[in-house]
Design brief:
Blueprint lengths: L1 H73 L18 H10 L15 H4 L55 E2 L6 E2 L15 H12 L5 H10 L6 H28 L2 E12 L7 E11 L4 E7 L5 H6 L5 E4 L15 E4 L2 H10 L5 H23 L4 H25 L13 H11 L1 H5 L12 H5 L2 H10 L5 H19 L4 H11 L13 H8 L5
Parallel strand pairs: 3-6, 6-7
Antiparallel strand pairs: 1-2, 3-4, 4-5
Helix pairs in contact: 2-10, 4-6, 4-16, 6-15, 8-9, 8-11, 9-10
Length: 537
């Protein structure tokens, strides 16, 4: 029995061995196929995970772009950032500023709080009437006043009225005299007019130029206003007055532009303007206004260019030596290695990018904005106490430099290259990379107390262009665009020097034809104001 069992097992084993040899290659092929399928599935899984990650990133970027577009269309445009912690931005600068000022002056400033008037105490919100306005007095006596009444005082009420504008004619009468003995005729000369042999005086041309380029009124609206005053002015006539008036001012524009080129600190920015081009039927050409501003002499220069290339700033700064403050546009890269030129960046551009990133990463964006806000608080203190450039530089070295160093370290720690959680194309990633890319230029404002932390003022001078685009839409030609640059320059300089533009234009247009060319700088808005105040003899 045992022998039988033993023999049976040997037979079964041989059958199993025989079966395995016959099917081994087939089973091996199946295993290899399954292994290849597993490898393929793993690769597909990894590809799907990568695709999911890419889609999630695109989704996040699309959300950010949508939020940005919604804000541009419907949201607030202000870049002001208010910290959640009211105590976080408290800076003990007053003592520091007083110490710095005390090193050069012992002058003390006392602040006396004015006692509120009766109307203010009662919360009266009526606008005070300016004291310089002409007063027309009207006395209203009581009717049927009894005999023997004694005046004990009076009640005074003031209301503002409006007098209709007037176009009047200035009639020059020049008597002619015959000279019997000498022979001939004597007649005095006619005063120079802004438009020789024209019938528009300086005040009328000044009103039209201010209306279009300061108040942003299209010419046809002013024509309607004049028509209500009884004067119908044609399109060709009013357009000719504008062109001739600006042409008379070009000599001032050219001289002031040369002064900016000779200065050693200049801000620059650019914006677009649509221009009619006879070579492009049915469409407009997109030209550019480049604006240059020298804070040291408070003078502005607009220049029109057909494109946004490097040619504009390269020609303007051809012989320039000093500091150029601009945004990160690549056209300014040509000055990076130029000897004698220092590039400054604009902190407002950095702040703007972090403000746009609040929806993307509120924690990181808020931290950067808080640090930047501290820097601006220091600048406000310097202006509040009217610190000299030397004093402002000293204040910055003590207060601003540590903040800048801490911010720089934080930026490197949170850069997309160091933190894989931050996407390079996300709003916060682009904000950090932009700040790091501009960091060397950003720090340069600390080198000189004359330098500003940003070039906001030159950006502000571009706002009239944006408002004008919405009203008169385009310039009639490339030549008209350059004329527009001339008047925008002079009006911006008036604004910076707090000069009333219509008054300045009226006076200058009245005198420009007879003014000595070697004294043309007297007509610059800054010098004109000082002359009117008697500060220049």
């Amino acid at each position: 029995m045992g022998f039988f069992v033993y023999y049976f097992c040997i037979i079964k084993t041989q059958e199993t061995i025989s079966f395995t040899k016959e099917n081994f290659e087939q089973l091996l092929g199946q295993v290899q196929l399954l292994s290849a399928q597993v490898t393929q599935l793993k690769a597909e899984r990894n590809n799907l995970l990568d695709e999911l990650n890419r889609l999630q990133q695109n989704h996040q970027l699309t959300k950010e772009e949508l939020e940005w577009l919604k804000r541009q269309m419907f949201g607030r445009k202000s870049e002001r950032y208010i910290s959640m912690d009211p105590c976080q931005l408290t800076l003990e600068l007053e003592g520091m500023v007083e110490t710095i000022r005390g090193q050069q002056s012992e002058q003390t400033i006392s602040y006396q709080r004015k006692k509120p008037t009766k109307e203010q105490a009662q919360g009266h919100s009526r606008m005070p009437i300016p004291s310089h306005l002409r007063r027309e007095e009207i006395t209203i006596e009581p009717k049927d006043l009894p005999e023997g009444a004694k005046k004990i005082g009076e009640e005074i009420t003031e209301v503002m009225e409006y007098k209709k504008a007037e176009i009047y004619v200035k009639k020059y009468i020049r008597p002619k005299y015959a000279l019997p003995k000498e022979g001939g005729i004597v007649i005095d000369q006619l005063p120079s007019l802004p438009i020789p042999k024209g019938n528009a005086g300086p005040s009328l041309i000044a009103h039209i130029l201010t209306g279009k380029y300061v108040d942003h009124l299209p010419l046809y609206r002013m024509q309607q206003q004049f028509k209500r005053l009884g004067v119908d002015i044609s399109d060709k006539t009013i357009g000719g007055w504008v062109s001739a008036g600006i042409d008379a001012l070009i000599v001032i524009y050219d001289a002031s532009t040369q002064d900016i080129m000779k200065s050693d600190y200049c801000m620059v920015d650019e914006t677009t303007i649509k221009v009619l081009d006879k070579n492009k039927k049915g469409e407009t050409h997109l030209g550019y206004f480049w604006v240059y501003y020298s804070p040291l002499i408070q003078t502005v220069c607009f220049q029109y260019r057909k494109g946004r290339g490097r040619a504009g700033p390269r020609e303007f700064f051809e012989n320039f030596k000093g500091a150029i403050q601009a945004d990160g546009w690549q056209a300014y890269e040509i000055f990076r290695k130029r000897e004698g030129v220092l590039l400054l960046a604009c902190m407002a551009h950095v702040r703007r990018k972090f403000e746009e990133a609040l929806k993307n990463d509120e924690i990181r964006a808020s931290h950067a904005l808080n640090e930047i806000q501290k820097l601006y608080a220091i600048e406000r203190q310097a202006k509040k106490y009217a610190l000299s450039p030397e004093q402002r530089k000293e204040l910055r070295s003590k207060e601003s430099v540590p903040i800048m160093n801490n911010l720089k370290e934080w930026l490197y720690e949170n850069a997309p290259q160091a933190n894989t959680k931050i996407l390079p194309k996300s709003k916060i990633g682009m904000a950090i990379n932009y700040a790091l890319g501009m960091w060397e230029r950003l720090e340069n404002y600390l080198l000189d107390g004359r330098y500003e932390i940003d070039n906001n003022w030159v950006e502000n001078s571009l706002r009239p262009v944006a408002l004008g685009r919405k009203n008169y839409l385009f310039a009639g030609s490339h030549q008209a665009a350059q004329r527009t640059a001339v008047i925008y320059s002079l009006m911006a300089s008036c604004k910076k020097n707090e000069v009333e533009p219509t008054e300045w234009l009226t006076d200058v247009l009245e005198r420009i034809q007879d003014h000595p060319i070697n004294k043309i700088d007297e007509l610059f808005p800054s010098n004109w104001k000082k002359l009117r105040q008697g500060n220049i003899k």
